[in-house]
Design brief:
The chain has 477 residues and is mainly α. It has helices at residues 2-7, 13-20, 28-39, 45-54, 66-90, 95-102, 107-135, 139-145, 153-163, 166-196, 218-243, 261-268, 270-303, 310-321, 324-334, 347-371, 375-383, 388-416, 420-425, 433-443, 446-470. Residues 1-190, 276-467 form the ABC transmembrane type-1 domain.
């Protein structure tokens, strides 16, 4: 997909580029709900449709299997690979491909013999990144795997914690440390080992990647990609939205089977309003303090020669690479009063958890922007008589303002709909929107859960639209 969108003349490339990363900004557990609506063996929309069309006695697909979990994980974590590989392709020096074509090689042979080998480091790094994200995922395995009694490490960790005993906590911590070691070892391999295996893919001059002409295959490939995108990306979310308006999920979609009751409950239930408020407050605080630290770190890394400045950078990176369950367990053990600090069962501990996990995204955005501001601009302001604070206010901050706004949103959004850490850190007064949705989906009303999921999806799209407008298109999907 990255090759078709970035290196061919396929129709609608800009549209498909955006569509392919939609699931990147959608909570994974919402994706799990979407595929449940389609492939549930008893009442799945797609299963019922296929059974009716082909006269089948049993459902052809069963989402409550290991392959079902793998499929949904793939659908919601492939954007990590797509984004990584697409960026690498955009920076690739086309001279080697040009040499291959001049030598008489076909576009397909050039792709197989030149392009893919040059992309090997990025492909490996993308695969490792998807592996780590999938291994530490909780929402998808818990929603799909639990009914079929399929358990993952993250599910077992949370089950052990909920036992409430010292032995259960010890078992949970053992598994969490194991998961953390595996994740960070893989991230180390991805970042350093693969990163050092440099292939010469970028030249010193400005280059534009070659565009492969698809010829007679242009329309067929576009149609195939369109059909694939509809069934894998669009249809699941449409199904969730429709479910939110149904009275009985097992009956045909008729006017008598449509209702707004689920939406009325979303906007009137005290528990949903309270959890939404908690999520908004915690995410806002995490984004505010996270971006402050990110700005300080950006200045420290780009404008000073302070010894040891890489240490906090390493720690922030380590926190981002650590599985969510491990972060939550570490905070439970260290901040529940055993070591003098007791903020357990408060929003504060959630805010700290969100900052540890998601601050890196904001920091990298601001650091990248700061690196593009030439120091001579700041030096000119100081020579003109401006003090350090005025220099920051009048020169540096305006130049990196768009990146700061993007950093705030990059921390806010995943914090707002976070599930894994919230499941371990919540109390009766600090339930979050992600946890509330999970409870409705698992124990209460799937229609209300679908309405809440649709509301979250619309909110995410709205935030992305606002981000696009505020940053003038510099940052958004």
């Amino acid at each position: 997909m990255a090759f078709l969108v970035g290196r061919t003349d396929m129709y609608g490339k800009k549209f498909f580029r955006t569509l392919f990363v939609v699931t990147y900004m959608v909570p994974p557990y919402v994706g799990a709900m979407a595929w449940l609506r389609l492939l549930n063996p008893n009442a799945g929309v797609l299963n019922r449709f296929l059974m009716k069309i082909f006269g089948l006695g049993t459902a052809p697909f069963n989402i409550y299997t290991t392959s079902g979990i793998v499929w949904v994980l793939t659908c919601f974590f492939y954007p990590y690979a797509f984004i990584t590989i697409s960026r690498a392709m955009e920076k690739m020096d086309p001279s080697l491909e040009e040499a291959s074509r001049i030598s008489g090689a076909s576009p397909l042979k050039t792709l197989l013999k030149v392009t893919i080998p040059m992309m090997t480091p990025s492909i490996i790094a993308a695969g490792l990144l998807v592996f780590v994200a999938s291994a530490s995922s909780y929402g998808i395995p818990s929603i799909i795997g639990a009914p079929g009694q399929i358990y993952t490490v993250t599910m077992r960790i949370i089950d052990f914690v909920h036992i409430g005993s010292e032995e259960g906590l010890t078992d949970a911590m053992t598994l969490a440390v194991f998961l953390m070691l595996i994740s960070n070892i893989i991230l180390y391999i991805s970042t350093f080992v693969v990163g050092r295996k440099q292939y010469i893919t970028m030249s010193g001059k400005s280059t534009r990647p070659n565009i492969v002409e698809l010829g007679k295959w242009k329309l067929p490939i576009t149609i195939i990609i369109s059909v694939f995108s509809f069934f894998v990306i669009i249809l699941p979310f449409i199904t969730v939205a429709i479910t939110s308006f149904t009275v009985n999920m097992g009956k045909p979609l008729t006017l008598s089977n449509l209702s707004l009751k689920a939406w009325e409950k979303v906007f009137s239930r005290a528990s949903i309003i309270s959890s939404t408020t908690n999520s908004f407050l915690a995410a806002t605080a995490a984004a505010f303090f996270g971006i402050l630290i990110s700005c300080v770190m950006a200045y420290l890394l780009q404008r000073t020669n302070v010894k040891g400045k890489r240490i906090p950078d390493f720690l922030i990176t380590l926190g981002s690479g650590t599985p969510s369950v491990t972060i939550a367990l570490a905070l439970i053990i260290s901040m529940s009063g055993k070591f003098g600090i007791n903020i357990y069962n408060t929003l504060t501990i959630m805010i700290i958890a969100y900052m540890i996990k998601y601050m890196l995204m904001g920091m990298r955005t601001v650091v990248s922007a700061m690196s593009q501001v030439h120091p001579s601009l700041e030096e000119a302001a100081q020579i003109s008589g401006a003090n350090w604070l005025r220099m920051l206010k009048d020169v540096t901050l305006p130049l990196i303002a768009a990146s700061i706004v993007a950093g705030i949103f990059l921390i806010f959004m995943p914090s707002f709909y976070e599930l894994t850490m919230s499941t371990l850190l919540y109390s009766s007064n600090t339930k979050t929107i992600g946890y509330e949705l999970y409870i409705y989906q698992t124990y209460h009303s799937q229609q209300v859960a679908s309405a809440l999921a649709t509301a979250i999806l619309l909110f995410v799209i709205l935030v992305n639209y606002i981000l696009n407008k505020l940053t003038k298109g510099q940052f958004s999907i």
